[in-house]
Amino acid sequence: MMIVLGIESSCDETAAALVDDSRRLRANLVLSQFEEHRRFGGVVPEIAARSHLDHLDGLITRAMEDAGLSFGDLSGVAATCGPGLIGGLMVGAVTAKAIAAVHGLPFIAVNHLEGHALTPRLTDDLPFPYLLLLVSGGHCQLLAVEGIGCYRKLGGTVDDAIGEAFDKTAKLLDLGYPGGPALEAMAKNGKTGRFGLPRPMLGRTGCDFSFSGLKTAVRHLAEELDYPLSAGDKADLAAAFQDAVGSVLVDRCRHALALFREMTGQDGPLVIAGGVAANQALRHRLEQETQERGVRLIAPPPELCTDNAAVIAWAGLERLRLGADDPLTTAARPRWPLDQLTPPSSPVSTAEKVAP
Ligand code: KG4
Ligand code: ZN
């Protein structure tokens, strides 16, 4: 039996988890730093790094205790080494390397996006290939997932990431922090039909996204209303924004499914992953669309969509069982595009790609 310790610290969640090769989560702890960043209205990198440093050790100890394991029971230690905020990444990477060095364990440098991309293999044992809609705070991409380290990008955002658009729109409407879940909650009380918003890229060929115009359109509508906005205005604007995002996602996925069929001869499956995939309204839109087309949709449980270490441990385990661990000299890096990864068997290893 393989058991891997996973560490996640790329943004504002400090997380430690233990996962085994029968896909069991032996422990899964996430400490969100929402309170520390709330008064700044967004993540402050230095505060995030210091908070990871303060909490990571204790969290790992608790995870080991929850699982009833000692370090000698582990097969490897995996940490997110990018992309993300460099201070936090360094805290996680150095901690994982220290544990690996002291206990003589393999170290695996995990790409955070690969953690999101491989989640359906942890939750649903999904075989390759599949189509992935990766929607998070920093990313919005459609990818054909062909194997570990084999990601073909079909489209991405030309401006804002989708989570960023949620967060900025929530800030504009003064909905509180973190913005995505706050906007979703507000939209539940709103009417989608009161305000007309653009649907950027809708009907265009290809699979690219654009969200900055949508965010600006919300601002213009808000400026025309009486200040301060009433709860009803905010709810209706939030509902209109979420509805427009839903229409764009459905349209882009339609195009991607057609491309994916040309590439693989398969109709899906379609996987949604990343923090924004926790949004129930968007999940529902994609469910309706895929059901009508007879395409299987896999939407992992929300707690495995938002940042966590279970999916990092799993990505590490998938690499480790193919014999791919990384040297302790591997550096954390803020940028690390998913489609630049290579399969573990490739002559150019992940580690070489990661090294400065
Ligand atoms: O994957 P994630 O936890 O961190 C990154 O890798 O970026 O995604 C965080 C993003 C944030 O922008 C957050 O506002 C958004 O996911 N998010 C949501 C929801 N929950 C989290 N956006 C919309 N609706 C939600 N329920
Ligand atoms: Zn993420």
What does this 3D model show about the protein?
It is a single chain. The protein has 356 residues and is of the alpha/beta class. Helix content is 45%, strand content 17%. The chain is built from 13 helices and ten strands. The protein has helices spanning 34-38, 45-67, 86-103, 112-117, 119-124, 162-172, 179-187, 212-224, 231-264, 280-293, 302-305, 310-320, 350-354, and strands at 3-8, 13-20, 25-32, 76-82, 107-111, 130-135, 140-147, 150-156, 270-273, 297-298. Strands 3-2-1-4-5 form a five-stranded mixed sheet, sandwiched between helices. The protein has a five-stranded mixed sheet with strand order 8-7-6-9-10. Helix 8 (212-224) runs antiparallel to helix 9. The longest helix is centred in the C-terminal third of the chain and has 34 residues, at 231-264. The protein is globular and about 60 Å long. The model is unreliable at 347-356 (pLDDT under 50).
